[in-house]
Amino acid sequence: MCNAGVKEKPENGPLWRWNGVWEGEMATFQEYRTKGAPIGFAPDPRTAHECGDSRYLAIPFLDACMAMRLPAEGSKDQTLRPVDSSQVWLASLLGDTAVPAADFKGNTREAVWLPNAAVAHAWMEYVKNGTVGDSTPPSSPFDLKVVAKPDQGNEITWDAEADFESGIGGFIILRDGRGLARLPAAPQDQVYGGPRPLFQGISFHDTPEAPVPEMRYLDTSSHAGEKHTYTVITLNSAGVPSEPSAPATVP
């Protein structure tokens, strides 16, 4: 999947930025597709050379391709399976609408190749908005612990699984069933590629910003001898909440 930012096109970006990436990817796509290779082109309308929110298209695309090609689980034959064309969707290059391959009216050897309907719908959203929406809740936090810190308050720590559809946007800490705090407390100063900030932040190269924030909160409003029950909720970057974690109290 070729994934150049629209702002890298010579007519859309400053000359000092452009280094031929857009034209290089376009030439690669056209050469490969002419020979029937299963390759797509997904221009990001929001970015130049930064990664932006490309992971939200890359992950389902790679998942679909691996599921198509990898040997069946437990099979002794480890040969890659052939590309399955029965579920393929196609789209016009630099267009924003994909259809099942059987319904495509143009030249298939010039069309964007998409492995199935789910990826095609994600692609259509991505080339229009530069991101892919997500309505599925993330997993609940786990391993929640509370420790009383003398003269400081209660320290709450937890762990959480990655949310591959849209990433973890933050956490809500609840005390006795009521909202106590939301992390991060303030948005990152700059988010490369658009409005989907992550709890860990994001660099130009799509890696977490250092220092990586801890899944930790100090409840300084609690006092010695008070008994409180805490839970934590994960928010993905689309703002969808998880179910609360299992509760924890001060031992």
Structural description of this entry:
The model has no long low-confidence stretch (mean pLDDT 90). It contains three helices and ten strands, in the order ααβββαβββββββ. The termini are far apart. Helix 2 (55-69) runs antiparallel to helix 3. By secondary structure, it is α+β, with helices and mostly antiparallel strands. It folds into two domains: 6-129, no CATH class; 142-249, Immunoglobulin-like. The relative contact order is 0.15. It has helices at residues 21-34, 55-69, 117-129; strands at residues 89-91, 98-100, 112-114, 142-149, 153-159, 168-175, 178-183, 216-219, 229-236, 248-249. The longest helix has 15 residues, at 55-69. The strands form three sheets. It has a four-stranded antiparallel β-sheet, with no helix packed on it.
What's the quick description here?
The protein is α+β, with helices and mostly antiparallel strands. The protein has two domains: 6-129, no CATH class; 142-249, Immunoglobulin-like, CATH 2.60.40. The protein has three helices and ten strands.
